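ok trying again, last paste got cut off:
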Amino acid sequence: VPGCPPTAEALLYGVLQLQKKIRRTETIAR
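nice, full thing came through this time. structure:
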């Protein structure tokens, strides 16, 4: 994440992207 410390918006965006990636991985695993 560029910029330190990262802003709340950037942090929230990162978390959402991570959740999407995890969800996609779970779907492929099944």
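cool. The mean pLDDT is 84. Residues 21 and 27 are 10 Å apart (CA to CA).
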